[in-house]
Every structure is written in structure tokens, then in C-alpha cells.
């Protein structure tokens, strides 16, 4: 294929970086959603409100969400709210969208911001965890880790595996965020992939 043999093609680099992003993103999202769902499964005042807060961003179209994040994170010359706030505090503005390192951090934060659907799925699965088994472990002197490892994890394991596969699929298909956040779907600097795992771009023309 010409994409693979053409020395000017960025196809192989784009595939490599996308896969790295996908694996890191899956780990972050699964861990974050599982921890948040375990916390939201406890009984405390304002639990339902917090559940709604975490779920709400997931129902907003990705294009609209990305545009809002762009308005917040773009440089101060373009009116980026966060950088303008940093300037007022006397701090150095941060190039969130053009720096090869920061753009990955931005994409990861956006992914965590919009993963409320997975949190809801985990919450629903946690309702099926046998309460009597949790009480038995507690009576035997077990702690929270014992409850999770011996009862909770075996119960939610099939759903956890399914969500891992779905998250990997959506991570590999990332496109809207990278295109909207920058001119060509990548930081403007073309840094060689050999410099480091994140010293590169997602897509390049």
C-alpha cells in the first residue's frame, strides 16, 4: 500500500500514536469510572446529585463538548478563559492545544469528562453484588479490599471486560476531538515519534 511505503506518509506514526493513546486512555477511563462508581454506590447526602453531575456530560454531543473545551483552553490571544485567568493570577499561560505533551493531557481529560455512561453501567452492575456476602466478609474481619477482591470484582468482571472492549473501540476511533481542537487534528510542531511516546502528533496531513 502506498500509505505504508511512501516515505512522506505519516500513516504508520499516526497508527502508533493512536494505539498508544488508546491503551493509556482505556486504563485511565476504566480505573476512573470504577473508582467513581464504587464511591457513588455508597450512601451519603447528595449522592443522586453527584450521579447526575457525572452523567450529564456524556449526553452532550461530542462536537459541542469539544468546542467548549477549545474555548476554555485556547491561548489568551484567542480569548481562552483558563489562560486569561492564569494571566490575571500572574501565572504563565499554558499551551494546552499546540504542545505535543499538553494535547494528550487535554484529550485524556476530555475522555474522563465524558465517561459518565460507563459510570452508570458500573453503578447498575454494583447493585447486583450480593449484600449478604459483603456482610459475611465484614463479620469475619475483612476490610474494603477483601470485599472488592472476593465479592465485588468477581460479580462485575463480565461487565468490566465488556466495557474495556467498548472503551478500546471508541478510543481507537478518536477523531472529532483532535480535529476540532487544532487546525489539522494535531499540534503544529512535527516532533519525531522516536523522541518519546507522546512527543508526536495524532494525525498529520
From TrEMBL:
Membrane topology (UniProt): Multi-pass membrane protein
InterPro entries attached to this UniProt entry: ABC_transporter_permease, MetI-like, MetI-like_sf
Pfam families xrefs: BPD_transp_1
Keyword Transit peptide on entry: no
Record key words, sorted: Cell membrane, Membrane, Transmembrane, Transmembrane helix, Transport
Location relative to the cell: Cell membrane
CDD domains listed in its UniProt record: TM_PBP2
Stretches that traverse the bilayer: 20-40, 52-72, 103-126
Domain ABC transmembrane type-1: residue ranges: 15-205
Keyword Transmembrane (UniProt): yes
Family label: Belongs to the binding-protein-dependent transport system permease family.
UniProt name for this protein: Carbohydrate ABC transporter permease
Organism: Paenibacillus puldeungensis
Taxonomic path: Bacteria, Bacillati, Bacillota, Bacilli, Bacillales
Amino acid at each position: 500500500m502506498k500509505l505504508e511505503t511512501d516515505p512522506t506518509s505519516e500513516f504508520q506514526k499516526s497508527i502508533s500514536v493512536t494505539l498508544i493513546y488508546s491503551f493509556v486512555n482505556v486504563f485511565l477511563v476504566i480505573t476512573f469510572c470504577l473508582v467513581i462508581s464504587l464511591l457513588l454506590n455508597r450512601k451519603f447526602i447528595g449522592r443522586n446529585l453527584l450521579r447526575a453531575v457525572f452523567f450529564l456530560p456524556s449526553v452532550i454531543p461530542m462536537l459541542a463538548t469539544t468546542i467548549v473545551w477549545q474555548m476554555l483552553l485556547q491561548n489568551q490571544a484567542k480569548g481562552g478563559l483558563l489562560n486569561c485567568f492564569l494571566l490575571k493570577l500572574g501565572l504563565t499561560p499554558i499551551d494546552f492545544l499546540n504542545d505535543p505533551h499538553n494535547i494528550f493531557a487535554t484529550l485524556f481529560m476530555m475522555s474522563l469528562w465524558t465517561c459518565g455512561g460507563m459510570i452508570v453501567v458500573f453503578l447498575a452492575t454494583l447493585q447486583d453484588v450480593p449484600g449478604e456476602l459483603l456482610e459475611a466478609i465484614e463479620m469475619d474481619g475483612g476490610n474494603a479490599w477483601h470485599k472488592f477482591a472476593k465479592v465485588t470484582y468477581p460479580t462485575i468482571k463480565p461487565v468490566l471486560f465488556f466495557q474495556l472492549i467498548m472503551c478500546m473501540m471508541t478510543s481507537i476511533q478518536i477523531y472529532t476531538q483532535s480535529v476540532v481542537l487544532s487546525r489539522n487534528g494535531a499540534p503544529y510542531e512535527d516532533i519525531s515519534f522516536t523522541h518519546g511516546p507522546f512527543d508526536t502528533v495524532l494525525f498529520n496531513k
